[in-house]
Amino acid sequence: MKTKTLKVLGAIAVTVLTLVFLITGIKADTLSDGGYEVPVSLRKANSPSSVSLANQYFYGTAKVNVSNGTYAVTVTTNGLNYIKGMTANGQSVKESNQAGNKGDLTFNTDGKSNYVPVAFSLQIPIIGSMNQTAQFFLDYANAKKVSEPAAQPTAPQTPQTPTTDTSTTSTTPTVSEPTTTTTTLPTATTKKKTPAKKPTKKTTVKKTSKTKASTWSYVILQGDNSQKSIANKYYTKKAKVIKAGKKYRVQLTVSYKKSLGLGSHAVKPISVLGKKVYGVKLGQTKKNYTMNYSFYVSSLKQLKKLVKAKIHVKVPMLNISQTFNIRFKFSHSKTAKHVAAAAALPTSNNNGGSGKSYLSNAKLPQTSDSSQFELSALGLFMAMVTVAGGFKFLGGRVNA
């Protein structure tokens, strides 16, 4: 009976120790000096067992160099263009080997834990600025040693004095034979007279009358206040207004850098003044994606008022697919004062102030357990409420 009890207790003890080992993993301070390849993943800040959505932007293997109790960890990301700042264990990281969106991030750790807390300062296209916290999990239990520690330098050897060769060699100079040159005299040429051209009759071409386009400036405001929309950065802010029968056609142009990694369909116009848009045409230059589209007004007086519109924005890196309410504020070139006043409008932030994006304190969805952002099961909708700015992301249509 006692034997069975001891066996049961022993089995329980083994199980508990196994679970502890699996949860905590092997500690980094058990690794000897040298270079290692270590499996790594980005976990949520408040849920170490849950993988962060941002994990997809980091390669799964880290390089770790152990030397005299210091562990230099290098992780590789394919989203470097979006990271404006990063700290690990409260210390700044070192960037290297940047090539487009790819690059290495190196930081030091003391080797006392598998988890390394990190904080990101991100700049997300169209969405704006975000601050994010998470933690890297370094799986030292499956670390693979790839190099031994560097050997200590030895004392330099005394260089030997080179011996000089005293032997001489004689060379016999070569004499080149003189060359003869032949001079060719120019031959006389006779100029042929070309007959004079007869004057041609002038033909007059009637010019076809073209409808002259006028240029209007504009800024894009948020749907429910006078602050600039984030979308303002991705429009050219110059509209062509053309007379089209009894109406006026207003053509707008979207332009944003290819290096942002958003693809050619990041912005899709939904409606202007409650009606569908026309003539959507995608294009591109060497560095930018572009899109032209138009809407109609019955009178230019309509452009002197705020023009309500809706656009749909996709940010693949965050699985965001949102419809934004915006408003266009147009001004003609004749009223330069209005153009200058419109350009001076503040850009919103989450405190209702100016100069920063309204998402400056937002959180990357599904990376930490922040209440500011939450994705649904499909991972396509956000929810955010800011106190002073008055913005609410409620899964569908929002104010940009």
TrEMBL record:
Asked whether the keyword Signal is assigned, the reply is yes
What Pfam families is this protein classified in? NEAT (PF05031)
Q: What is this protein called?
A: NEAT domain-containing protein
Q: Name one GO cellular component term.
A: cell envelope
Ranges annotated as biased composition (Basic residues): 190-206
Mind telling me which residue stretches traverse the membrane in this protein?
none
Species: Lentilactobacillus curieae
Q: Where is the NEAT domain?
A: 31-154
Stretches the record annotates as Disordered? 148-206
Q: Which domain of life is it from?
A: Bacteria
Where is this chain compositionally biased, Low complexity type? 148-189
Gene3D superfamilies the UniProt entry points to = 2.60.40.1850
Identify the keywords attached in UniProt to this record, alphabetized.
Answer: Signal
InterPro entries linked: NEAT_dom, NEAT_dom_sf
Give the location in the cell: Cell envelope
